[in-house]
Design a protein that fits this description.
421 residues, mainly alpha, Serine Threonine Protein Phosphatase 5, Tetratricopeptide repeat, 17 helices, 69% helix, globular, MalT-like TPR region domain-containing protein, TPR_rpt, TPR-like_helical_dom_sf
Length: 421
């Protein structure tokens, strides 16, 4: 079974079912719905380059730092989520319609991904019942059973988080974490770190600040330590399978060379993807902690974290993606709150540059934010020009929220001019 946590501890075993998500995650511009599947690294990056993410405006309230937008982002992170696969490869079962547990889980997952949450919840619980029955009848062993339950709990937790049922999501994520640990994962493994980030975000939304901060600090410290260790361990290590083959007197030299090359290439690919997952989770933890500190009005502490998260996003995803724009806008928000107008202007211009390359529908919102900075610094002509640009783009994109923002900006400019006259 491609269980929830098995793929993230130690050397990653590849299979047709193995799919991981590395990197930050975004919401589709139309509906705020999560992407419909969990993707490989290259697929995720491609979708980032094609997608358009919602951009938060400056000066948000503490509670809105972790709004529905953030809930969906956290619930679709996908590092720990594996694909349930039981008895795959057994021809007899496939001819009979496939494994019952896999079939019920697949129905639940499809309903989940299509936002039919009521049906998904029913089918997930049906899958738990099927797993219980199969264990009782000895059709699956306990290891498979534990992996299935952990996988299902994680899916239920993600769904509860998207629906805003924070207490339920907290309990389910803790059950998921318990299952991961029972399967032998280390406390600082990437799967546990992702779950810890989600739990810390829930604590923040429930105003349990001390727990949120402690959890996020642990996540950042753990990922920093892993990144440092990876840098120190760059020396080449010959995989055991190769050394064993070399020691065999019966090994075919030509076959050995071919197998060596394939094994080495796969090992390098696995290690590179694991490193990107580690980096991406570090970025997620930094961003989450930065948002948390902004909500606490600890802006001097928040800015360096957001800057680090931005560096990670640039390394992991590049600059032409929705998450990069979100981070730039968050950083600009903190700079505005600190009245660091010059830095905020530079940051927003950088976001506008990336959004322009992406042809993002969020450009008008960014121009509105920049116009607001010009207004606050009494650069009225620049403010008017920028807000008119925002209004024109909002009208073309049929973005009613940004259009309203630009209209208010222009009205405020007129009020300031009248007051100065």
């Amino acid at each position: 079974m491609a269980a929830l946590c098995a793929r993230i501890s130690g050397t990653v075993a590849r299979s047709p079912l193995h799919r991981s998500i590395s990197g930050f995650q975004v919401i589709s511009k139309q509906s705020g719905k999560p992407f419909q599947q969990r993707l490989t690294w290259s697929q995720l990056k491609h979708m980032h380059n094609q997608s358009e993410s919602k951009v938060a405006v400056p000066l948000q309230s503490k509670r809105s730092r972790f709004s529905r937008h953030w809930l969906v982002m956290m619930a679709t992170a996908g590092f720990s989520q594996g694909f349930l696969g039981i008895n795959l490869g057994k021809k007899e079962d496939e001819k009979k319609g496939g494994d019952p547990l896999l079939r019920v889980y697949a129905e639940a997952k499809h309903a989940h991904m299509t936002q039919d949450f009521n049906k998904a919840e029913i089918r997930y619980h049906d899958a738990l019942k099927v797993a219980d029955e199969m264990l009782k009848l000895k059709k699956i062993n306990f290891k498979t059973y534990l992996g299935a339950r952990t996988n299902i709990f994680d899916s239920l937790a993600d769904m509860a988080l998207v629906r805003g049922d924070l207490e339920k999501a907290e309990a389910l994520y803790k059950e998921t974490m318990k299952g991961c640990l029972q399967q032998g994962l280390e406390i600082d493994s990437n799967a546990i770190i992702e779950l810890s980030i989600k739990l810390s975000s829930i604590y923040a939304m429930l105003d349990r600040a001390a727990e949120a901060e402690q959890g996020l600090q642990f996540c950042i410290k753990s990922q920093d330590a892993k990144m440092s260790a990876e840098e120190k361990n760059k020396a080449f290590k010959v995989p055991d399978i190769i050394t064993e083959a070399v020691a065999s007197q019966e090994a075919d030299p030509d076959k050995l060379l071919s197998e060596d090359a394939a094994t080495l290439a796969q090992a390098e690919q696995d290690e590179e993807e694991k490193k990107r997952d580690t980096q991406a989770l570090l970025g997620m933890a930094l961003e989450t902690y930065g948002r948390f500190l902004m909500g606490q009005r600890r802006l001097g502490e928040a800015v360096p974290l957001l800057e680090r998260a931005l560096d990670v996003a640039e390394t992991v995803l590049g600059t032409d993606n929705g998450q990069y724009i979100i981070l730039l806008n968050d950083l600009a928000s903190a700079q505005i709150l600190m009245r660091n107008w010059d830095q905020a202007t530079k940051t927003l211009n950088k976001a506008i540059e990336s959004a322009t390359k992406m042809k993002s529908s969020q450009l008008p919102a960014l121009y509105c934010n920049l116009g607001a900075v010009f207004l606050r610094t009494s650069k009225l002509d620049q403010a008017k020009e920028t807000c008119l640009k925002a209004q024109d783009l909002a009208n073309k994109n049929k973005n009613t929220t940004a259009f309203s923002m630009s209209q208010k900006c222009l009205e405020k400019i007129q009020q300031v001019k009248k007051g100065a006259a």
